[in-house]
Every structure is written in structure tokens, then in C-alpha cells.
Write a structure and sequence with these properties.
Layout lengths: L9 E4 L3 H12 L4 E4 L4 H6 L5 E2 L1 H9 L4 H6 L1 E3 L1 E6 L2 E6 H5 L3 E3 L2 H14 L4 E2 L3 E6 L7 E6 L2 E6 L2 E4 L17 E16 L9 E4 L5 E7 L2 E9 L9 H11 L2 H4 L7 E15 L2 E2 L2 E3 L5 E2 L7 H22 L3 H28 L8 H16 L1 H12 L4
Parallel strand pairs: 1-2, 1-12, 2-8, 5-14, 12-19
Antiparallel strand pairs: 3-7, 4-7, 5-6, 9-10, 10-11, 13-16, 13-17, 14-15, 15-16, 17-20, 18-19
The structure holds adenosine-5-diphosphoribose (APR) and P-hydroxybenzoic acid.
Adenosine-5-diphosphoribose binds next to helix 1 and helix 9.
Length: 395
Amino acid sequence: MSEIPRQTRVLIIGGGPAGSLLALLLHQQGVESVILELRTREHVLERVRAGVIEHGSAEIIRAAGLAGRMDSEGFVHEGVQVAHGEKMIRIDFEGLTGKHVTIYGQTELQRDLYDALDTACIPLIDEAEGVRVEGIESDAPVVSFERGGTTSQIQCDFIAGCDGAHGVSNDFIPPGLQRTFERMYPFCWVGLLSETRPISDELIYARHERGFALCSMRNESRSRYYVQGPADTTLDDWPDDRFWSELAARLPTATSASLVTGPSIEKIVTPLRSWVSEPLRHGRLFLAGDTAHVVPPTGAKGLNLAISDVVYLSEALAGFYRNGSSTGLDGYSDHALARVWKAVRFSWWMTNMLHVFPGMSDDFERRLQTTELDYLFGSENAQRAMAENYVGLPL
Ligand code: APR
Ligand code: PHB
């Protein structure tokens, strides 16, 4: 942990991908910041998260000089597979859009970000508890927190709330000034990580009468799989054997024949929801990443939205310090939300198309879902629209 400074320009709450990348982008533009992180460094570095990096996100990581390991250890994926029952097609990203995605675990990216913070001597104060702010509406807010039983205060020009879906930054905006939008999906994903060879070179998104399944990976010998489960399911319901047999049953027979199973090294249950809070600013507080919006994992957009938010925010803050103009800061919320909502829409579309909804007894709804998949399978234009969104809309 670094020594606690008494003041800084931008105080960043949360040291996940959004907060760490923001600090680095600011540093590269000559703007000083301090990060306050609730958990220990080790905890943050061990969290297992998704791993699909959009084309534009990878370019940002590269431009920031952070892509050494991503480029040597990550995997370029030029397409994904979509299965429906026994049928499977490939969405050819490279052919349809000239772009691709990179498979590189968020855990690895987080390590690269922390290494770069250390190299740049950017203060990252971990185990900072009870963060609260005063003077958000003034031009000299003060952030207080406790660490090891001692209370400290840091005075700053701006606060960036990057503290994820369970953070506190959102609570600093008076309820009457905030509007939230939410959709809870009536199911969850059960995820399993194993030291096994991935079933395929590319990700497979599968819709089956038994429910959704996803085959993903971290590297040639580590696989990540998900199956849709009931909303109230718990890990106890999913011993490894049940998980593997359910996964196999949801994939086309020819594909499931190549499934290599093995003991799980991590297993999770994750609910699916969309949630957006507007606006992303109150006074001197700006929100970015999961604290401002959550998307279901189906479109692999969470990390990528955190990245685009902090690119916009770092440019707006750097612009303020360069020429004293607050135009960028004033436009930040609308600018970021326009991109956020497009990702919310895409994640909602993918989720609706690929999951079995309980109570979907309505034949009309079922027919529409099947028709959506038929249309995707048969139309290059529909495939291009999916590819364009999956590789990431322009920043
Ligand atoms: N004070 C300080 N830090 C906090 C607080 C708090 N009160 N509450 C949470 N944090 C920290 C968390 O411990 C975490 O390290 O904020 C960080 C937020 O990081 P993420 O949850 O990773 O969110 P974000 O940086 O916005 O990145 C979004 O991460 O969760 C995934 O799927 C999500 O891929 C997306 C990406
Ligand atoms: C993952 O690899 O964990 C993953 C991949 C794609 C998704 C969600 C999660 O859409």
C-alpha cells in the first residue's frame, strides 16, 4: 500500500478494471489520481471474471501500452458459433466486419493493470473501508475512509465512482436526482472452470429446449462453461456430474462428442439482470463501469463498457485540466449512456434469443424465438448485425 496523500486531482473509488484503467489513462495525460479499493490487492487479483475483449477495447489497451501479455497470451477469435438444437452456424466476425475479439481473462488484465499502476507509482490504497464523500457539489470535495482503524481524508477536484455493482458511489447521488432502469431475467447461469482442453477453438452459444449453454475458454488447457439454471438454484444443485451431463445435452450431438470433462476448479451461480442508473454525474462525482450499469453476461459487454466509460471520462477530465473547459465533463453522461444502452440492447437481444423462459408456454413467444434464430441462421445481414455488436460498436 502506498502512503496516503492528503490531496489529489481525481479520487477514484474502486480498483477494478474501470478504476485502474482510468488512473492509468489520466496519468498518461498528466492528471494525478489516487485509487481507494475496499478489498485486498490479492482478492482483486484472484477474482475470476469474463474474458472477451472487443476489438476497440484491445486497441485502447494497446495504445495505453498495456497489451504486452494480452497480445502474446490472449487468443484472437475471428468468429463465434451459435447452435440451435442440432444446427450450428459460425458468425464470421472478420469476414463480416473486418474485426475480431481477443480472449484474455479479466483476471489477467487486472494483473497487467496493477503492474502498470505500480510502475507509474500511482497510489492504490487497498482495504479502504467506509468510504464517504462531502462537498460533491462544491469544487473541493473531500473523501474520508478507514484503514486499519485510522480515519483518513483526501481532498480532490473530482471523484470517479468505479466501485462496481455492489459499491457505494451510486448512493452519493440524491435519490430524487437519479433514475434507474432494471430488468431481472427469470433464470441464472451456473459457471464452471476446469483444467480441460476447450471443446472448440471458438466460443459456442447454444439454445436448446433444456436451456442455454455457453462454451468458453481461458487458454488451450483451461475451459469455462455455463448452463442456464433456475433463478433460485444454488451450487449444491450442481455437482460436477450434473453440470457436465446437462452441458452435453444442450450442445449438438456431434459437438458434445468432443467435450472433455474434468473436476471443476471454480464454480459460480450468477443472476442475469440489466440495470442502468442515469445520469452518470452529480456535481463533481462521475460514475463509470458496473457501478453505473450492469448487463447480463450473454453479450460479454460488462468489461468492455467499463473500458469505454473510462476512456470518455479520462478524455473529459484531461480536457478540463488542459484548457479549463468543462464541455467534455458536461457531455460525459450522455456520451457514455448512448453506448451503454446499445450494449444493454444487444445483451437483451442475445439473452432473449438464447434462453428458455419459464412460463414461455405462450406459443406465439416460442415461435418468435425460433424465428429469430432461423433468421439469424439464414441471413448474412442478421449475422453482420450480431457480429458488429459483438466485436464492439465504435467508441
Ligand atoms: N469502496 C472502495 N472500493 C469498492 C467499494 C467501496 N465501497 N465497493 C466495491 N469496491 C471495489 C471492488 O472491490 C472492486 O475491486 O470496486 C471494484 C469494482 O470493480 P468491478 O466490480 O470489477 O467493476 P468495474 O471496474 O466497473 O469493472 C466492470 O468487472 O464485474 C466485472 O462483469 C464486470 O466485466 C465487468 C467489469
Ligand atoms: C467467459 O468466458 O467467461 C464468458 C464468455 C462470453 C460470455 C460470457 C462469459 O458472453
